[in-house]
Design brief:
CATH architecture of the largest domain: 2-Layer Sandwich
Shape: globular
Number of domains: 3
Number of strands: 16
CATH topology of the largest domain: BirA Bifunctional Protein, domain 2
Order of helices and strands: HEEHEEHEEHEHHHHEHHEEEHEHEHEEE
Number of helices: 13
Oligomer: single chain
Helix content: 25-40%
Length: 374
């Protein structure tokens, strides 16, 4: 019998995420490696990087190696009134890497919910984003903002539509001094500018921050987005994922493509976001679609640091057993450890050159910890 090679760290993460999305009824979407370049040229602001690898096909069309999955799904699916398409993917994309700028083939995993999207769908996608982070690392945070709420506040204080993008960029940079300067330039009343600065400073657990937002905006009528944000967050907080949610209004995206809830996921040990998503109904309208849409992507290249940390060890656990060990119970212990995602080497004696996080000894039917380097 051919011995199976152990899964790499990236393969284990991808397998876990695919299994998670399957359990929620999402079906896998497969696509071509390339699309017509015009799709990306018209939506460069939506891309992580606007640098795209292009080539001419045999029919003389300018094609591009796929730098993004969402745009391909939006292009290649159809509106079906009243229906909901729940799709997940793990696909390679081709984009310029941060730092040296050279192109890389990057595995991207994510999901999209398109069609008759309601608050439950948005809450489910937000929950799956949180569960995706926890599947990668228990030390994670999901930052959430609401472009609709920011837009309503900006409208209420009298800033024009033309100036919204500039103001949101300032909010995204957490730059109160520039915010002050813009408000003075646009003759915004000081008390209204102060509301924006206070909102920008709010960050933390939803239960705390939502009450602060209500107090801050109590004199402004028609803040419907705040009510929606509260209802959707309640769906996620009702699960065991509520503890990793954090409201942070500096998480903003291009208002020409996104609307409503937007979010980014972070894990300890990685300096940039590893997950990004939100509602993108405006993108759907831009390409002539009537359906709503919400989704997110996990950028596997950002997990390379965690992968390096994994490579410090050959396995997580070495489980030693003696001649008196109950083999059926030994097998059950091993199955339990591997079921928790651990890489386990079962040995009679400790190999001289093996690198492991911990050493366990199984003697008879009990497990004893001999060494723990975690």
């Amino acid at each position: 019998m051919m011995q199976e090679l152990p899964l790499t760290y990236q393969e284990r993460v991808i397998f876990g995420l695919r299994s998670l999305y399957n359990r929620y009824g999402y079906t896998q979407y497969k696509m071509s490696k390339f699309e017509e370049y015009d799709l990306y040229a018209r939506n460069k602001d939506f891309l992580v990087s606007d640098r795209v690898i292009t080539f001419m096909d045999t029919n003389g069309r300018l094609m591009a190696l796929k730098p993004d999955v969402t745009l391909s799904i939006v292009k290649n699916t159809k509106d079906a009134p009243g229906a909901l398409q729940k799709l997940y993917y793990n696909e390679n994309v081709y984009r310029a890497a941060k730092g040296n700028g050279s192109f890389k083939e990057i595995m991207q995993v994510g999901l999209e919910c398109l069609g008759d999207v309601d608050e439950y769908c948005i809450g489910e996608v937000l929950l799956l984003a949180a569960e995706s982070l926890q599947a990668i690392s228990p030390d994670s945070i999901l930052d959430i903002s609401h472009l609709g709420l920011l837009s309503e506040l900006i409208d209420a204080i009298g800033i024009s539509e033309n100036n919204k993008s500039q103001l949101l960029a300032c909010i995204g940079q957490k730059n109160p001094h520039e915010l002050d300067a813009l408000c003075r330039q646009w003759n915004v009343a000081s008390e209204k500018a102060e509301k924006l600065k206070q909102l920008l400073a709010l960050s933390g657990r939803p239960a705390v921050v939502l009450s602060q937002i209500k107090a801050l905006l109590s004199d402004l009528p028609g803040m419907h987005a705040l009510e929606q944000l509260e209802r959707i967050l309640a769906l996620v907080e009702d699960s065991d994922m509520g503890g990793i949610l954090r409201i942070d209004f500096s998480e903003v995206d291009d208002i020409h493509y996104y609307n409503g809830i937007v979010f980014k996921g972070f894990i300890n040990g990685v300096p940039s976001s590893v997950l990004s998503g939100g509602q993108y109904d405006k993108l759907m309208r831009k390409v002539g679609r009537k359906a709503g849409a919400v989704g997110f992507a996990v950028y596997m290249d950002t997990l390379e640091r965690l992968d390096d940390r994994q490579k410090e060890y050959d396995v997580d656990t070495v489980l030693l057993y003696g001649p008196e060990a109950d083999l059926m119970q030994l097998q059950a212990k091993v199955r339990n450890l591997r079921g928790n995602g651990e890489r386990v080497a079962v040995q009679r004696q400790l190999p001289a050159d093996i690198r492991c996080r911990r050493i366990l000894k199984f003697d008879g039917s009990e497990v004893e910890i001999l060494e723990n380097n975690a």
